């Protein structure tokens, strides 16, 4: 069975700063996806970024980038130039390829302060 | 293109009753997954349907069941409600092709069991 661990329950930074959220996972699978989802107070789950395990290049989406270390089973999210709208719960998630079953970490509550 | 819709958005039931939640996926999406979100257990996978067939099931008791219709709309049912069933129930849909396994979430149904 796969497990996902987010070791930072809460984080808080000032607007415009850079913040990194940590995630580690455990799996014996070789083909899988990793995701970061954002859940703002509205509770709507929004996909932030995805990474295919077979791709060595780290995924990037505007201010969001990941540091994917496959051997270490680590998948951290970096948010650059943080904005007030980035305030949310962030969940790291694992999905075995074509299994359509997400395994989530416990989440990190991120607060961006003005 | 309209997103995933879930009805109702809020529901209050009493112990012992049963409840049915509905999910309409994004047009063209054939896979629908259900998740339960609670403060204590976090996000947990319930089940996934594809072409009216349950393909994956999480570790939940038989009181939790679901189905999918020919138009890909899905329902989940919880019978003999318990206080611990109070949760946010999230539905997600996926196109399910070799390039697009990501799941898009609905706004959720908040179930309160009294």
Would you mind describing this structure in some detail?
The complex is a heterodimer of chains A (114) and B (114). By secondary structure, chain A is mainly β. In chain A, 0% of the residues lie in helices and 54% in strands. In chain A, β5 and β6 form a beta hairpin. Chain A is globular, with a radius of gyration of 13 Å. The termini of chain A are far apart. The model of chain A has no long low-confidence stretch (mean pLDDT 94). Chain B has 114 residues and is an all-beta fold. Chain B has no helices and 11 strands. In chain B, strands 2, 4, 5, 6, 9, 10 and 11 form a 7-stranded mixed sheet that branches. Chain B has a 4-stranded antiparallel sheet with strand order 1-3-8-7, with no helix packed on it. The termini of chain B are far apart. The chains are: A mainly beta (114), B mainly beta (114).
Entry summary:
Chain A has 114 residues and is mainly β. Helix content of chain A is 0%, strand content 54%. In chain A, strands 2, 5, 6, 10, 11 and 12 form a six-stranded mixed β-sheet that branches.
Keywords:
heterodimer; A: 114 residues; mainly beta; six-stranded mixed sheet; four-stranded antiparallel sheet; globular; B: 114 residues; seven-stranded mixed sheet
């Amino acid at each position: 069975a796969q497990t996902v661990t987010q070791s930072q329950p809460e984080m808080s930074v000032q607007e415009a700063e850079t913040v990194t959220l940590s995630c580690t996972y455990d799996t014996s699978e070789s083909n899988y996806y990793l995701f970061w989802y954002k859940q703002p107070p509205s509770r709507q789950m929004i996909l932030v970024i995805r990474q295919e395990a077979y791709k060595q290049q780290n995924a990037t989406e505007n201010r969001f980038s990941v540091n994917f270390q496959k051997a270490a089973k680590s998948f951290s999210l970096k948010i650059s130039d943080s904005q007030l709208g980035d305030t949310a719960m962030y969940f790291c998630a694992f999905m075995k390829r074509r299994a359509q079953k997400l395994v989530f970490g416990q989440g990190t509550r991120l607060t961006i302060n003005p | 293109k309209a997103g995933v819709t879930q009805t109702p958005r809020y529901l209050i039931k009493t112990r012992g009753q049963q409840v049915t939640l509905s999910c309409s996926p994004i047009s063209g999406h054939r896979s629908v997954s259900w998740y339960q979100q609670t403060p204590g257990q976090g996000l947990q996978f319930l089940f996934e349907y594809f072409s009216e067939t349950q393909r994956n099931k999480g570790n939940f008791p038989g009181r939790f069941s679901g189905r999918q219709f020919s138009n890909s709309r899905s329902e989940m049912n919880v019978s003999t409600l318990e206080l611990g069933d109070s949760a946010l129930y999230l539905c997600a849909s996926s196109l399910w092709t070799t390039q697009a396994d990501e799941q898009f979430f609905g706004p959720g149904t908040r179930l309160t069991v009294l």
